[in-house]
Amino acid sequence: MSKKYDNYGAISTIYDKINVNVDYCAWADFFEKCFDKFLSDRPELVLDLACGTGSMTLELAKRGYDMIGVDGSPDMLNVALDRKYDMELPRDVLFLLQDMREFELYGTVGAITCCLDSVNYLTGDGELKKCFSLAHNYLDPDGLFMFDVNTPHKFENVYGSNTYVYEEDDCGGESFCVWQNFYDKETKLCDFSLTVFEKNEDNDTYSRRDELQIERCYSKEEITTTLEQCGFEVIGFYSDFDFSHSNDTDERWYVVAKAKK
C-alpha cells in the first residue's frame, strides 16, 4: 500500500483557489462548538487528518491548539509548509507525510479533524475500517473524531456524469481546470478526470497537467456501522454547522463521533 499519493500534483497549486468559498473559519467555529458541547475540556493537541494544503490545520493553530497535520501528498504538504512559514503562529505545527490508511503518531490526541470529503477517498474494501481503527487508536478516551463526507445524493445528482469548468477568473486569472465526472451506481465509485492549465511565468503559454482522482460513496449506515465496530459512539450526522439534523437531500454530512475506551 503506497504511503503517498501521486495524483494531487496537478491540482495542488490551485487547490485553495478552487475551494476559495470554503469558510474554514466557520468550520473551525463548529469544531470548537463540538469541543464545548461534547467534551469536558477543549483538547490541547489536535490531529488534522488528510490536511491537504493545511487550511484547517493552520486555522486551528491560529486559535492556540497544538496541531499535527497528516497528508499523503507531498505536493499538498509543500503548499502547507509554504503557508506555515508565511504566517506568525502562536504554536508550531508538525506536518507529516503519511497515508491516512496507515498513519502513525507518537502518542494520542484529544481530537481528530478530517475535512473536505477526504474520507470518500478511502475507496478500497476495508480501507474505511482501517482509517477509523487508527483514529480510535490515537484518540484519548472520549476524544472526538469529526469529519465530513459527500452524500449519496451528491454523487448521484450533482456529480453523476457531469462536467465542470473552473474559469480563469475563478482560479485567480493564471489557471483554470476542467473536471469531468463519472459515477458508477453499482461500484459506488466516482472518477474525477481533471485537466489543469496554468500560465507559464515567462510567456503567455499554458502548461497542461492531467490526473485522475476517485471517491467512494458511503451510506449513513455504512459509516455508522464501521464507526461502532471501531469503538466509536456516533454522536450525530449534521447538515450544517448549526447542528441541524441530516437528511437524504444533503450534499454533505458532518459527522461527529466519540472514542469509547
Model description:
The model has no long low-confidence stretch (mean pLDDT 90). By secondary structure, this protein is of the alpha/beta class. The longest helix has 15 residues, at 24-38. The strands form 2 sheets. A 7-stranded mixed beta sheet has the order 3-2-1-4-5-11-10, with helices on both faces. The protein has a 4-stranded antiparallel beta sheet with strand order 6-7-8-9. A hairpin with a 4-residue loop joins strand 7 and strand 8 (189-199). The protein has helices at 15-18, 24-38, 55-62, 74-85, 127-137, 152-159, 220-229, and strands at residues 45-49, 66-71, 93-97, 109-114, 139-150, 163-166, 175-184, 189-199, 206-216, 232-238, 252-259. Helix 2 packs across helix 3 (55-62) and helix 5 (127-137) crosses helix 7. It has 2 domains: 15-151 and 219-259, Vaccinia Virus protein VP39 (Rossmann fold, 3-Layer(aba) Sandwich), CATH 3.40.50.150; 154-216, Single Sheet (N-terminal domain of TfIIb). It contains 7 helices and 11 strands.
As residue ranges, the low-confidence spans are: none
The helix content is 25-40%
Structural class computed from helices and strand pairing? alpha/beta
Radius of gyration: 18 Å
Overall average pLDDT: 90
What is the N-to-C order of secondary-structure elements (H for helix, E for strand)? HHEHEHEEHEHEEEEHEE
Q: Could you give the distance between the termini?
A: 29 Å
Number of domains: 2
Count of beta strands: 11
CATH superfamily of the largest domain: Vaccinia Virus protein VP39
Would you tell me which CATH topology of the largest domain applies?
A: Rossmann fold
What is the level-2 CATH architecture name of the largest domain?
3-Layer(aba) Sandwich
Please list the strands of the largest sheet in the order they lie side by side.
Answer: 3-2-1-4-5-11-10
Q: What is the CATH C level class of the largest domain, in words? A: Alpha Beta
| Share of residues in strands | 25-35%
Q: Main beta sheet, described? A: 7 strands, mixed
